[in-house]
Backbone:
């Protein structure tokens, strides 16, 4: 059994509980299961996702009005205001190589390579980090998962749906520690990293929409241009370097001396680059303090 996209104005007829059982999740804690279904329903609901993405592009556009700011700068500040990037652990497994005197930073890491399950679940997600997935490529999107978190948390705060978990961050931390029958069907894969081409549990669908002409507003066009420029740069560097990982190598790995990092062998890593200290002012400060610069009903 599969779940379907609930188009605008249509009734939700998906049997989420049966789908969970089909995927091997027959003994979930009742509250966790209810939260999983709430998140799944959200990403199957076209109207709610479009509303959330509209909110995101508008918030980021307003954030950039007085001074140009990167998405990493934006998400660092939004995340800190919304319970993300606040690590709960101080230990790092001996199987990993770290930078000297490593301590978990409180800002957004860059992902290099395909993370091992241990590094992904027990370091990145368990500590509630947002992430810039630089190595995933433009189709997946560097920021797709973090955008999923944004639209979920803003909708939760608005009362669009309710969770037993206190925050979306806490929910993600919880599911990161739940193992399913099949490694490829973790709750993370089902809710945030699926290959379903018709619903927004697929990060590719988030990115595909945001780089299209889905919305005629200046805010949507501004972000689409930014994402399309990233795709052109990624592809150009990959061609020049003759490597799909050329972008990450050129932009980040050559600056390891500036970073705190956790490596697994030489294949994958989390890289934290210290954010630039710039004075927050005017409209930018208002956006950061509230998490949104326009009324909740929009």
Residues:
């Amino acid at each position: 059994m599969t779940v379907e996209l609930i188009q605008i104005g249509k009734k939700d007829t998906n049997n989420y509980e049966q789908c969970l059982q089909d995927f091997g999740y027959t003994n979930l804690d009742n509250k966790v299961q209810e939260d999983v279904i709430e998140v799944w329903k959200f990403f199957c609901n076209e109207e709610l996702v479009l509303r959330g993405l509209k909110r995101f592009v508008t918030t980021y556009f307003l954030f950039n009005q007085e001074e140009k700011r990167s998405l990493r700068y934006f998400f660092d500040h939004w995340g800190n205001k919304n319970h993300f990037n606040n690590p709960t652990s101080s230990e790092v497994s001996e199987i990993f190589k770290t930078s000297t005197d490593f301590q978990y930073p409180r800002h957004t890491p860059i992902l290099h390579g395909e993370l091992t399950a241990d590094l992904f679940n027990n370091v990145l997600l368990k500590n509630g980090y947002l992430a810039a997935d630089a190595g995933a490529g433009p189709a997946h999107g560097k920021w797709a998962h973090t955008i999923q978190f944004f639209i979920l948390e803003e909708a939760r705060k608005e009362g669009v749906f309710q969770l037993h978990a206190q925050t979306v961050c806490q929910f993600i931390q919880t599911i990161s520690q739940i193992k399913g029958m099949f490694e490829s069907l973790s709750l993370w894969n089902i809710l945030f990293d699926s290959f379903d081409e018709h619903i927004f549990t697929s990060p590719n669908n988030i990115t595909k929409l945001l780089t299209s002409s889905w919305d005629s507003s200046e805010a949507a066009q501004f972000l689409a241009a930014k994402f399309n420029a990233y795709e052109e740069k990624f592809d150009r560097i990959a061609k020049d370097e003759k490597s799909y990982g050329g972008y990450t190598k050129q932009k980040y790995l050559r600056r390891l001396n500036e970073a705190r990092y956790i490596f697994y062998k030489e294949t994958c890593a989390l890289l934290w680059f210290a954010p630039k200290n710039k004075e927050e002012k005017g409209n930018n400060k208002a956006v950061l303090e509230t998490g949104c610069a326009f009324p909740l009903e929009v």
Notes: Confidence is low (pLDDT under 50) at residues 279-283, 288-298.
